[in-house]
Design brief:
Order of helices and strands: EEEHEHHHEEHEEHEHEEHHEHHHHHHEE
Number of domains: 3
CATH superfamily of the largest domain: HUPs
Shape: elongated
Distance between the termini: 42 Å
Strand content: 5-15%
Structural class: alpha/beta
Radius of gyration: 27 Å
Helix content: 40-55%
Number of helices: 15
CATH architecture of the largest domain: 3-Layer(aba) Sandwich
CATH class of the largest domain: Alpha Beta
RNA sequence: GGCGGGGUAGCCAAGUGGUAAGGCACGGCUCUGCAAAAGCUGCAUCGUCGGUUCGAUUCCGACCCUCGCCUCCA
């Protein structure tokens, strides 16, 4: 069995072999957030996807270095800094912190490095300088530095590795900003933007005058600084493939002459309630909007990783409700296994692990993996109900789940000790039941429900469960 | 206009040249004092029309619908 990914470079599913096939070291970079606002659910689909890739690589025995940039200088940010009168750092840090909180809410493992664009200006300048020296970049009349695609191609490099491009057929220019009219060619892109009055205090000195970096250059500079000129994996949302990632390749390979990234993975977008998210449709959800409605990060994460990353996924509130029930089913099963296993330890059940691995090896077919998990849940429940599971088998099943969960990142719903007054009510109900005073016992059950506790009568007596 | 994804049960979503995983919802049954939990069970000819084939949802062609990218949007 071998791990395979769909590599956007070849548009085909390829076996994953690290850049250095003799080692198990994997270096991955994922384009992170632009911190001008709180992240929305679509952003987080991509970041949870990256988290899944990282966790799965680790599960498969790779030693992963995971980098995610934080874009803290950009047009929208500059505009809001101007509008709010806050300093750049001051404005941005609130959303940066919120972003990290949101990642935690979703059970994401923090990347090893979270570089901020503004802290890598010297590296970006160095990179632009290299491109200038090689004659691939030029300074335009407005003082900005642009990347020349023509010169790049003249060096024998290929522009258009991730998408098929046909410049003649493109509807170019519809969204070109007014400050970019001085480019030599329409497809050229900014590496360094000359300072303009609207930038306010947001500018840095450079050999080409004051200004700020272009968007694409930051990812090239930070990824290569932290991971080297060539690395294994680069991920991001599908919209970034062109132009962002294409331009990253051009800048990086143009500057170093080395292949930039071996595997490019792109996550598909999200629909919400069947439509593209938009504020006017009322289906634009920040993560905070969802947690504010009472949904847990766990439920949201589950829903986000219930579908294959390359499919457009329809994210719905109904789906979240379903996620809650599905997780409850899983928790129920795990709770029963734990009860049976007690302190017993055992080696993980290999069949579950094998099925799970086979599914995820196939370009992270997570939907299929969930199929095997829930078939396992049903089989386990059957055995539990029939009293055919030993403590050792239960421990073995739990051990397997722990390994799966290192990938899924859902954890287990924590068992909460019932407070004394709840315990007292439970005993009162038991007494009433013994006396066959069912009216009274049902009343107590309702009272407990109001307090957030559910009762399940089992063969071994009543069990309290958090609602 | 160019390029690239999709259309599978009420909803979400896998998958395969030989009569379709899983989750949610819904109905029936078992268990239960009643519930809950759990189990069993019922519920789809896979967008349309042709073609290839002994046989296609899966391959080919056409069409319809839908989504994304086409210069700073995950």
């Amino acid at each position: 069995m071998a791990l395979k990914f769909l590599n956007t470079l070849s548009r085909s599913v390829e076996e994953f072999v690290p850049l250095d096939p003799t080692s198990n070291v994997v270096k991955m970079y994922c384009c992170g957030p632009t911190v001008y606002d709180f992240g929305h659910i679509g952003n987080f689909r991509t970041f949870v996807f990256a988290d899944l890739v990282r966790r799965y690589l680790q599960f498969r025995g790779y030693e992963v270095t995971h980098v995610m940039n934080i874009t803290d200088v950009e047009d929208k940010i500059i505009r809001r800094v101007r509008e709010t009168g806050l300093g750049l750092r001051e404005y941005v840090s609130q959303f940066e912190n919120a972003f990290l909180d949101d990642l935690k809410t979703l059970g994401c493992v923090l990347p090893h490095h979270l570089p901020r664009a503004t802290e890598f200006i010297p590296e970006m300048i160095q990179l632009i300088d290299a491109l200038m020296k090689r004659g691939i970049a030029y300074q335009a009349a407005d003082g900005s530095i642009y990347f020349s695609i023509e010169k790049y191609q003249g060096c024998g490099c290929r522009y258009g590795q991730l998408v098929k491009l046909n410049f003649d057929e493109m509807r170019a220019g519809e969204r070109v900003a007014s400050d970019e009219y001085s480019k030599d060619a329409l497809a050229d892109f900014a590496l360094w933007k000359a300072r303009v009055p609207d930038d306010g205090d947001v500018f840095w000195a450079s050999p080409w005058g004051e200004g700020r970096p272009g968007w694409h250059i930051e990812c090239s500079a930070m990824s290569m600084k932290l991971l080297g000129p060539s690395f294994d994996l680069h991920l991001g949302g599908e919209d970034l493939a062109f132009p962002h990632h294409e331009d990253e390749i051009a800048q990086s390979e143009g500057a170093t002459g080395k292949p930039f990234v071996k595997y490019w993975l792109h996550g598909a977008h999200l629909l919400v309630e069947g439509k593209k998210m938009s504020k006017s449709l009322g289906n634009f959800f920040k993560l905070r909007d969802l947690t504010g409605k009472g949904y847990g990060g766990r439920e949201i994460r589950y829903l986000l990783i219930s579908a294959h990353y390359r499919e457009t996924f329809n994210f719905t509130l109904d789906g979240l409700d379903g996620a809650r029930v599905a997780l409850g089913r899983l928790d129920e099963c795990l709770g029963k296994l734990q009860e049976l296993a007690g302190a017993t330890k055992a080696a993980p059940d290999s069949r579950l692990l094998n099925d799970f691995t086979a599914a995820l090896d196939d370009d992270l077919n997570v939907a299929s993996a969930w199929g095997t998990v829930f078939e396992w849940v049903r089989e386990t429940n059957r055995l539990l109900a029939a009293n055919q599971l030993s403590a050792t088998q239960a421990a073995s099943a739990l051990a397997a789940w722990e390994q799966l969960d290192a990938v899924l990142g859902l954890g287990r719903k924590g068992e909460v000790e019932a407070p004394p007054e709840v315990q007292a009510l439970l005993e009162e109900r038991q007494a009433a039941r013994k006396a066959k005073d069912f009216k009274r016992s049902d009343a107590v059950r309702d009272e407990l429900k109001l307090k957030g506790w559910l009762i399940e009568d089992t063969a071994k007596g009543p069990r309290l469960k958090r609602a």
